[in-house]
Amino acid sequence: MENIGKAAPKKMTGLGRGLGALLHDSDNVNRSTRPLPYDNVSMMSEIHVEQIDVNPFQPRTRFDEEALNELAESIRIQGIIQPITVRQIGRDRYQLISGERRLQASKLAGLTHIPSYIRTANDQQMLEMALIENIQRENLNAIEIALSYQRLISDCGLKQDELGERVGKNRTTVNNYIRLLKLPPMIQAALRDDQITMGHARAIINIDNPDVQLKLFRKTIEEAWSVRKVEDAVRSLQIETPDPNSHDRRPSVVKQEMRSLQFKLSSYFGSKVSIKTDDKQKGEIKIPFTSQDELERILKVLKFES
User: Fold this and answer.
1) pLDDT top residue among 19 and 173
2) Which residues are catalytic?
3) In CATH terms, is domain 17-122 a member of 3.40.50.720?
4) What is the pLDDT of residues 64-113, one digit of tens each?
5) Helices (H), 168-283
6) If both were cysteines, with which of 76, 84, 248, 285 could 109 make a disulfide (CB 3.0 to 4.6 Å apart)?
7) What is the rounded (10 degree) CA torsion for 168, 141, 62, 77?
8) By CB neighbour count within 10 A (0-12 exposed, 13-18 middle, 19+ buried), where does 234 fall?
9) Which of the 8 DSSP states describes residue 24?
């Protein structure tokens, strides 16, 4: 294609597996070389970069300038290895679904055309594709992943088990990410900026009090605590502040074992778990839930079939 809008994009190859599975592609994909504007087509074309609008649903909010320049240099030498994905929104007009870094880097590299998979999708499908494509292919930080998971649940109406199937993660992993959004903004920002790791954050989230969470976070930063050190500190805090309704007066070593078990169960179920015992070694385990979907998730973790 020499001039913008002068020729129909030339078909090259079929759509990759990930997005194809998402949109339920079949063997009956339209194979014409000149697609109608709003057919549900699956093809790859060379599109002029000025015909592509940005993605309003882009889950990634920041791009590293140095990494972008490195990608641009790689594109100058090697060309585009992985095509971007777009949807057709009008005659000779496209909207980016995924691949914003590749599009920006291609412009920096001086490319006028870029290989693109063309899809026709409504706004919800586009949001879902953009989020899943970025989760699977981009180096998102933990908070960006958590926000993407949350948007897939709230905006696309997916349940956690459906989301897990879409992104290839189990329900516990998905829930552990979403729980991060309950942390104070300062801790979320530190996780986003790689000041702490996912392991640090997962340990801190097991403390209910936000003020205590922040105090523990500051100690972690100031003293460069490892994940294991933070986990030990969380267990100690839980032992020091037992449930006021508990009448447990057994030696602290037994309490510590119970708190350790409680910590492990909370991580396993992705929910705050409490254990209460008495002197006769009787007690109860509580796994709270706040919605029917969360209850169903817990039951599936327990492998309970109703």
Assistant:
1) 173
2) 100
3) no
4) 788 889 999 999 998 888 898 888 888 888 988 888 889 999 999 999 99
5) 171-179, 185-192, 198-204, 210-222, 227-240, 252-269
6) 76
7) -70
8) buried
9) T
Q: How far apart are CA 225 and CA 300, in angstroms?
A: 35
β-pair type (113-119, 84-90)? parallel
Using CA atoms, how far apart are residues 268 and 270, in angstroms rounded to an integer? 6
Q: Are 2 and 116 in contact (CB under 8 A)?
A: no
d(CA 107, CA 9): 19
Task: Write out the two tokens for 200.
Answer: 């640090």
Residue of 85, 159, 97 whose CA lies nearest to 124: 97
String of DSSP letters for 166-193: HHT--HHHHHHHHHGGGS-HHHHHHHHT
Residue 255: how many other CB atoms lie within 10 Å: 18
Pairing of strands 84-90, 93-98: antiparallel
The two structure tokens encoding residue 79: 């060309």
Structure tokens at 162: 């459906």
Helix (H, G, I), strand (E, B) or coil at 222: helix
Please state, rounded to an integer, the average pLDDT across all residues of the chain: 75
Cα gap 92→299, rounded to integer Å: 50
Spatial CA neighbour of 233 closest among 265, 253, 252, 256 = 256
Considering just the CA atoms, what is the radius of gyration of the chain in Å? Answer: 25
- Secondary-structure breakdown of the chain: helix, strand, coil percentages, each rounded to the nearest 5: 50, 10, 40
Q: Which amino acid is at 201?
A: A
Give me the pLDDT at residue 46, please: 92
Domain assignments of the chain as residue spans, ordered by start: 17-122
The whole-angstrom separation of Cα 44 and Cα 160 is 32
**d(Cα 288, Cα 229) in Å, to the nearest integer?**
27
Continuous segment of H or E residues that includes residue 113: strand 113-119
